Amino acid sequence: xxxxxxxxxxxxxxxxxxxxxxxxxxxxxxxxxxxxxxxxxxxxxxxxxxxxxxxxxxxxxxxxxxxxxxxxxxxxxxxxxxxxxxxxxxxxxxxxxxxxxxxxxxxxxxxxxxxxxxxxxxxxxxxxxxxxxxxxxxxxxxxxxxxxxxxxxxxxxxxxxxxxxxxxxxxxxxxxxxxxxxxxxxxxxxxxxxxxxxxxxxxxxxxxxxxxxxxxxxxxxxxxxxxxxxxxxxxxxxxxxxxxxxxxxxxxxxxxxxxxxxxxxxxxxxxxxxxxxxxxxxxxxxxxxxxxxxxxxxxxxxxxxxxxxxxxxxxxxxxxxxxxxxxxxxxxxxxxxxxxxxxxxxxxxxxxxxxxxxxxxxxxxxxxxx
Length: 370
Hints:
The chain has about 375 residues and is α/β, with parallel strands linked by helices. It has ten helices and 15 strands. Helices cover about 25% and strands about 25% of the residues. The radius of gyration is 22 Å and the shape is globular.
């Protein structure tokens, strides 16, 4: 080590604050300033490699996110705070098979596997990365207001990848971390893991449990969601050195920890009277019930959308948006696009109400496919 690097302070986020909860999965949502990424890279990704010689798997939403600048940022973060401890090498061309390998230049050993979650599921399932230290989902939330979107079948792909890597880590549990900005309380992967997204509150940590059956055996996955709030001292420092936060109301609210993507949504939590089920869609592990008003002059909205894990009765037809999800009693929606013209018109004219932000984001996913 040539020098000691930059000293870390106690104002920024430290992942050790959440490791004490001893959960399988940790989500940290906040504005960008607290230093989530820095702590994960230094304390987990680099710390595990330094101590055990094991690489980490870093998940990104899309292959386009894996730029040369992004790949270089891992080395830059470590060397900024640790001194010049590591030098890396990686391909400058596009990754092959959805995986980009960052290697330690000195040992030629893999340090990080960057995996794009828009890679086809079958390709992810075949990945053989050996034993890894942990999984980290970087930028797990998206800002739909500027056209960003989660990869299709995200939870299914995550499950395939996590199951494969966890098998290689046995008997030690494979820890999963995810960090992102607090654009919205909803996240499809958190929903899959049993998180009640509507109950999340800025400044609070919440633990959720969900049972899964794997190979005939029931396992319980515990997930911590830390809606991290800036420490007052850090907030004061940032406002002093960047007064621009005070001028943009939307960004100020985001800075204060408000889920700006959820602001202004027409949320009606309980089913209104005079509505009946028109369509049911299955989106990964959840269902989206489309309720239509019986009145042509409905004051509330023409449709009410309900996102739920409630399984429809066997007599109900269920539409799916990808051929991978086709099962008995399901129909591929792309074959019946004209059937949904009235629904699309209602969406485009805002004649829709939602039971939660989750159903709003599910509708956006649905919009691309009907």
